[in-house]
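Much of what follows relies on a compact textual record of a protein's fold. A complete example follows; check for yourself that the lines match position by position.
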Amino acid sequence: MTCYECTATNCARHACAALPSHASSTPSRWRQGPTPAQRPFPLLARAAGALGDRALFDTVIRQADALLDQADHTSLFNPYALHEIRLRGLVATDRAAIAIKLADDPPAATTTVAPQWHVIQFVTIAGVRLRAGDRTGSRESLETAIREANARRLPHQLQRIMRTAAGDLPDIHADAEQALDRLRQEMAA
């Protein structure tokens, strides 16, 4: 999607500016499941984190946490997905130490968790572990992520694995690159 203000694709800055008005939905409106206009919390939290907007990120994550017990869970609005978004946002807002403490304590996956979230979570946790200096733990997470991303045919996650491993785990980077090349060849055939 192209931002109409700056013509950038997926402009996080303008998304953050536009979404808070949608985030004012009352919890009672969430009880029957979020409608498209009521689903901004995960997206807004990701955008705020990507921008490094600590205050907005914290506010939106708190709102999302408060609604988790009141709203039906969806593939994007569930404890598992919000945990990954929280880890990524904490790192992006210069709070890696907190993310490191939370990384190995994900909530249990439920039936509303889309399969790709498992891969997304492995990659995010690997990045957090690298920040903590845990190369072994990061390697294990990324190896699992490569297998899962390949099995589920998720080229974007293989690219994330490559970015996460770049410079720190060159063999993992090479494995992900090979898996991505194989996947591209299979998809082109």
The CA atoms of residues 13 and 51 lie 7 Å apart.
